[in-house]
Amino acid sequence: YEFMMTGRLLETRLHNMYRGGRLGGAVYPGVGQEAAQVGFAYALEQEDVFGGTHRDLLAQLTKGVTLEETLLNFYGKASAPTKGRDGNSHFGVLDKGTLMVISPLPDAYAVAVGTAMAFDQRNERRVAMADCGEGATATGTWHEAVNSAAVLKLPIVFTVQNNQYAYSTPNDREFGLPYVAHRADGYGIPGVVVDGNDVLECYAAARQAVERARAGDGPTLIEAVTFRHYGHAGHDPAEYVKPDERDAWMAKDPIPRFEEFLAARGLLDEARIAEVKERIEQKIKTSMEWAQEQADPTADMVATDLFADRTGEAPAAGAPAGDPITMLDAIHQAMDEEMQRDERVFILGEDVGPFGGAFKVTKGLFEKYGPHRVVDMPIAESTIIGAAAGAALMGQRPIAELQYTDFIYPGMDQLFNEAAKYNWKGGHSVPMVVRGPSGAGLRAGPFHSISPEGMLAHHPGLKIVVPSTPTAAKGLMLAAIRDPNPVVFLEHK
């Protein structure tokens, strides 16, 4: 109840401040959705990971993020989780188990799949939870993430807060089923629809799904049917909601419902409600006053943390030995040696397993290291790259293979907005490699012949490698795997 009341009071205040011109940035109030956010996040343990969206501020607080961290971010302070680089709810605190929130939705789904993949590889009894609104379920990333996790039977729970509108678009213009969770049958996983205004029903469903995932039984899809009291953002008056529809939903407000439930059991009365509200309001007021006094970022900080610093040197080149080998053999050799040296290194991609990859660069590695370290993925470039980022955030060293670099386009959102920005915006390095064949010369046509290095090199936070000899390829691959930053490794055909 105190978590729910904290969310209601904090977000109402932030919304009113924004509407009154007293708060910069943006607000995306979750007022009305407190039962779903608290019910879902409360089902997680401390070591579990939550990946949410811009409207999941209360879920982050429930997971352990503090009011002080939250308000530092809204005021854009240098010591905020995003170091003043995003002044709203687009943040996460990885040390508290919440992934960085970004605008494209539902990108956290793919990243959370990667965190679950890391837990599975290390045989840890940890669970990921990925949340979004019903509108985000129309995206390819949503499908890729759910399908991939279902195929791999990963320890993850997918939750959807159906608040009736994707900005202004109603449900009947978003999907053709009565409920999003009915899609679960198509993925071969359980699907559950709950009353999103009943915190105990949300918690019970989430807890069951979390324990199922922890036991190794794979994902569950849970949909909480609820209502957003305010518009999509602070500037949106939500005039598209009909008055009678609003009235019907407001009568189901989750906080009065839970108050009635607690009062009927002798756990809450008017005096206790007043005491709780007063204490929370004072905490919010004190935290706001403190946050406003903290230091702002300075102009010279804008480019700091663009890349994580290397802490060790790559091995020096040795004297030539043995028979000459091809570039692909050199890359294969480098990956094999690193997988032997460091059990955190793993490969994921399409057909990289028993088939050995489209160009046979991973041939034999599946047999040597097994399916947890050479992971055959569905055709899902967005989730392949996003999952690599998520696994890297958990301490793994993923190598994501693209069959051709022409196919990088569906994964650029994850590459640019998650992997490349994470250290700069979220303060955590993303040690991952994306590799694949590029360039022309094989009469392969316009969809298998691009050289994307010029485009990629213009995006901050990425390192681009284009080796020209087998010797360079091996040394640079070893260096790329050991680098703490996202590296795109292009192998000219």
| Main beta sheet strand tally, sense and closure | 6 strands, parallel
Question: How large, in whole angstroms, is the Cα Rg?
Answer: 24 Å
Question: How many E strands?
Answer: 13
- Distinct helical segment count: 17
What percentage of the residues does DSSP assign to strands (E)?
Answer: 5-15%
Order of helices and strands: HHEHHHEHEEEHEHEHHHHEHEHEHEHEHE
User: Which regions contain 5 or more consecutive residues with pLDDT less than 50?
Assistant: none
What's the shape? globular
Quick summary:
This protein is α/β, with parallel strands linked by helices.
Descriptive notes:
With 493 residues, this protein is of the alpha/beta class. Helices cover 40% and strands 12% of the residues. It is built from 17 helices and 13 strands. The protein has helices at residues 2-19, 34-41, 57-63, 67-74, 107-121, 140-152, 184-187, 199-214, 243-250, 254-264, 270-292, 327-341, 365-369, 381-393, 412-426, 453-457, 470-482; strands spanning 49-51, 128-133, 156-162, 165-166, 169-170, 191-195, 220-225, 345-349, 374-376, 397-401, 433-438, 463-465, 487-492. A six-stranded parallel beta sheet has the order 9-8-10-11-13-12, with helices on both faces. Helix 1 runs antiparallel to helix 3, helix 4 crosses helix 11 and helix 12 packs parallel to helix 17 (470-482). The mean pLDDT is 96.
